[in-house]
Structures are given as structure tokens and as C-alpha cells.
Amino acid sequence: MVKIEDFEKILVNIVTPESVAAIVVEPIQGEGGFNVPQKGFLEYLRRLTNEYGMLLITDEIQSGIGRTGKFFAIENWDIEPDIVCLAKSLAAGLPLSAVIAKKEITDSLPGGCIGGTYVGNPVACRAALEVINIIEEEHLLDRALKIGERLKERFLKMKNKYPLIGEIRGMGAMIAIELVKDRKTKEPATQETAQVVQECLKNGVFVPTAGINKNLLRMLVSLEITDEQLYEALDILG
Length: 238
What we know:
By secondary structure, this protein is α+β, with helices and mostly antiparallel strands.
């Protein structure tokens, strides 16, 4: 793991910072293991990109659209990126992605350079507008925080019961539990994680994994889930 204080040294020694166009970062890692960045890291990246004239691009494809209790996960750090990438929850399952950029960036692009066969699908775009309306009307950002509280509360109880559970991490309704063979060595319990997933499937609950060792159970439940449905799934899990 690269320490904050070493990142700039590596950047300067390996490449010329002025030749780097942008730094792309997930505010909270998704497939990488639901890792929340250490304190000051994202602020540091913003300062670094400003200093060297780079763009800061946040990948919100998994963490965005209300998952963390904010519409964009980066809002939890009060940082303004130059470009934000969105997809997945944006259109509630319909295939749609979006790139949001500052005006000076989009205005600098030559006409016709952005396009594609499926760009601007009207049905998917209409679905995305409805998603945004529902999030606002039903106060789903607040709901994400409540879901997160319920998940953490249950997972902490499970951790006291099962030595297999290591770290519990995430933010809002974007929560994962790490399964380890030993809490001190943190040896990944990859096989055991796969067994848990299979047992959950047999009982009607799909729990995807995450992390480079596939030893994390990640929770990305719908923000429309009821407490009854949530607790039913958690009862099956633990």
C-alpha cells in the first residue's frame, strides 16, 4: 500500500507530473474491496492535481447515485472533481452511463468528438430522470444512511458471534464484511466466503463478493428495500 507521503515522490520519480493528464479514483473502492480512503487522501489528490495541472476524475459507477447517503460519494469529502463518471444505478437497471465535467472542459472539446451508437437512448434517459426524482421525493439519501446503520448494527453482532468476520467497512448503504481465517494475520477466507455465498443463494439471497481475494461480502441493496426485507435477508446471512 502506498502511503500518502510517498505518492508524490513516486509520481515525480517514475513519470513527469506535467505529462500526466489526470488521476482517476473511486471515492470508495468497489470491486477492490469497499475500501474507504484514509483521512486526508482525497484532499491530498485534489491539491496534487491542482498543483501539477492534472484533472481529478472520480469513478462513481458503483459508489454514486445515493449509495453512501450523498448523491455523489465524493460529496462526503466536500471535494469538487473535474469529471465524474456514473452508470449502474443511474437508470435503475437500464443500460446508461454518464460523464459529468466542468464547463471549461466540455467547451474545449471539438464538435462531434463525443458520440456512439447508443448515446442518448431516450428510454434509458427517461428512466434516469425518474430515478433522480424518486431519490428526491422519497428522501432516499436519508434512507441510505438508515440502511447503513441497520447493516452495521447487525454485522457487529455477527462479528461477536463468528470469528470468521474481520473488518466491517464502507459508508452509508455501501457496506462490506471481510471474512478471514485469523483476525490477527488477516489471512483471506476465500473458500469460506464462496461457501457462504452458495448457502445464501440456496435460501434466496444473492450476496456478491469483492476484494482481490474475493473474501468480502458486499451489500449493495436497493434503497427502496423495506426493513422487513432487509432483516429477512440478514437473518439468512447470519
